[in-house]
Amino acid sequence: MKPFNYLSNAVRAPEIIAILVRWGFEDLLLQLDTPQFLLRNLVRAKVTHLTAYERVRNACEELGPIFVKFGQILSTRPDKLPEPLVMELKKLRSRVEPQAFERIKPVLLKELECAIEEVFAEFDPVPVAAGSLGQVYRAKLISTGAWVAVKVQRADIQKTISADLEIIGWFAKQLHARVEELRPYNLPMLVHEAEHRLQEELNFRNEADNAAIFRALNTEQQRVFAPKVYNALTTRRLLVTEWVQGEAPDEISLPQEAASELARLGGQSVFHQIVGTGFFHSDPHSGNMLITADHRICFLDWGQAGQITLEMRYHLADLFAAITDRNAEKVIRVAERMAVNNRRIDRRRLEKAVTLLLNKHRHFGPSGTQMGTVGLEMLYIFGTNGIQVSADYALLSKAILCVEETARSMDPHFDIQAVAKPYLEKLNKERWSAGSVARQTVYPLLSMLRRMQQIPENLQRILQRIEEEDLQINFHHTGTENLEKTFNASMNRLTVGIIIGSLLIGSSLIITTGVKPLLWGFPAIGIVGFLVSGLLGLYIVVSTLRKHR
User: Fold this and answer.
1) In sequence order, which ranges of 121-222 are alpha helices (DSSP H)?
2) Could you give the CA distance from residue 132 to residue 201 in angstroms, rounded to a whole number?
3) What is the pLDDT of residues 375-429, one digit of tens each?
4) b/e 211-221 (16+ beta carbons within 10 angstroms → b)
């Protein structure tokens, strides 16, 4: 992540500061190393009718599409962020003004490597949808006569993302270093992970691959599908898929029986993806789904997809069973198996937090708490108590929450537990079958025997390296970034101070020589040396006073 530079962000930085102040975050900015000139002459508005998390969401929406996309990515980390904040970030939707086709056209031509008329018989220059990363157009292929959706990346999006991420990264580092209450969230790490995810979404080939994988793994589900991808026309910045005509689940008008059937079908599809194949759409909200005229469900926007292994699916089944039984001790045992680290935890503190959560949400289903909400809160409890789980579990919880909300928009009586139960029971039957038990027992035993056979050889290699004095131990110190920055600044000032002292001594010697040319009766070189040393000294004094303040 690049260091923040005020000069290169002279326009964007004041805009962001002004919006943050407008949404009531001035007190937070004052705790950071924010230059005072950016905080002057700004409109102060006390937003008292909204919570802090609601103000974060509103600020992201006003800050623009990159901040919206960034917030959407952060909403997939309920293991690191509080559940109320995740729920607010999940509401973020890209309300982006479409770019003019004149700006998009050069991108389209470059990716096609030919004229538009050579590929498309018809091409509507008015976008049917505009997102933070790309815009979608409707076109007709010359080769097959089929109508297709053409998703083109927005012009100069990489430059915009780079500038905004530089500012976001600076804020994250400042908040982590200066606001102790936010330090447990490790905001710089979250920003780094979100930046990586964002770069993945910028590559439309990843979205094409995810849609193709879904189609390959879900051939038996005739009424659930992903759009067909035209790989020959797809590049990093261009995605061409079949055109799907339909309506969003929360906007379509259907008889109650048909709506309930489609809600159940959508829930079954998501649990088939999670439990059956291990590859799932991580954001199945109503904006990413279409209901066709023949009552089929189409999953759109495969930029984000999750994947869990068979062992992770077993852990998921155990966790569901423990939550349903309200067995806090079993929840903790499953969480320890889910963990990707081996840190010691305070089991008593963790059990109290889990028990409180289970007691708070005593009723699941249509008349009670959403299962996805409990999953988000549970992951946050794990994360804050030292149990780090795979990020795919967070994607999974969000997927369950999204499909639960979407299904209930069609059928208020939708019960996700009833939908999930057959899939979890089938998974448990496969898990404890004779063949599965044999594989889980024999293979680890053989692997353990092989590792035991390698112990003498590995020990001999270590002793040989010690004997040859070729053994090295590497240490990596963390948390010293600010110390390194301070040391570098001090050395720079010390260097400038030495230069000033040298200039003063040299100029004093030259002044006494009377060497021409003269200026005001004194040697000009000496006077120039005095002026330069004076300016450098003034710079050091001013910068030191500003830094101290």
Assistant:
1) 157-178, 187-202, 204-217
2) 11
3) 888 888 888 888 888 888 888 888 888 888 889 889 888 888 888 888 888 888 8
4) bebbeebbeeb
CA distances from 468 to 137, 459, 461, 463, 472 (A): 67, 14, 11, 9, 11
Q: What are phi and psi of 105, to 5 degrees?
A: -55, -45
CA distance 348 to 113: 63
Alpha helices, H only, 339-433: 347-360, 371-384, 391-410, 416-431
First to last CA, the chain: 27
DSSP 303: T
* Rounded Cα distance, 36 and 26, in Å: 12
CA distance 173 to 54: 23
d(CA 509, CA 517): 15
Kindly state the DSSP code that residue 42 receives in the 8-state scheme.
P
Which CATH class name applies to 101-158+201-257+281-305?
Answer: mainly alpha
* Interval 426-458: pLDDT, tens: 888 888 777 776 777 777 777 788 888 888 888
- How far apart CA 245 and CA 296 sit, in angstroms, is 11
User: Cα-flanking dihedrals φ and ψ of residue 139, to 5°?
Assistant: -145, 170
Alpha-carbon distance values, 135 to 100, 124, 256, 437 (Å): 10, 12, 34, 50
Handedness of CA 442, 447, 452, 453 (dihedral sign): positive
